[in-house]
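Reopening: HAD family hydrolase still failing for me.
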Amino acid sequence: MTRKWITLDLDGTLMQNPFGKWVLPEIEELVSNRLKREVRAREALMREHEERMRQNRTVDAYDWDDMVRQLLREHLIELEIDVERLVLKHAAAPKIYLLEQTVIPVLERLKRSGYSLATVTNGFYKYQYPVMEQLGLSGLFDAIITPEIMGCGKPDVRILRSLLESGQLVAHVGDRLDHDVYLANEAGAASVWIYRDLPEEMRELQPEKRSASAHFAHVCEQKLKEEHPRVDTVPYSPAYIPTHILFQIAELPEMIERLEGRTSHGEGEG
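Support: Ran it again with your exact input. Result attached.
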């Protein structure tokens, strides 16, 4: 029987990692203390990350150990900073947490319904797995797809090739239009955008009907500009239009049921 995959992003979709508030600030503190002056290491690392993404180096852009080593060389600092070790240090509550209490019950329900689950994340395995393990997520996924393993990162559709070779991709769920929605649309799967700041008037609609709302275009255009300022939003490219919009992850199982129900019904008609 062909496996039916539902894939999900991690950071901003299911969980909060410790990078922004704990790992990067500690790196900045270590560098500043060594030089005995303030060094805006976080800003420098984010600039390097964005430059690597601009160059389409989607694996290198998430190799934080490499970017830290480069920063240390630029400042002529002889210092060993192990980012993986810092992640392990900070991978504990309340520094990390699930974004909704329903995350684990939702994943368990999808698995009971017969779906195979994979996380497709741009974070390296060594940075993501310790956080997933602490939050009780690691055992719920049949595959953990990361850029250093696949040789590319989102939104490059090749990151999905092992899943597509082993089954059908039903849907991909994520919080970024430029990474997650684009990826799912390129793969021909349901593109499920989770946006927890969804306007009240859009929340009353079912996830598959929200993109037809009069408020949709403005919401997506503003969000895409935040994520990817270089993308031309006029006209707004269909590549960044989600087929479904979630306000909360708890909406996902019933959305999938309706999606699969419509698919089955459509296939049964002449």
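The two ends are 24 Å apart (CA to CA). If you still see a failure, please send the error message rather than a screenshot.
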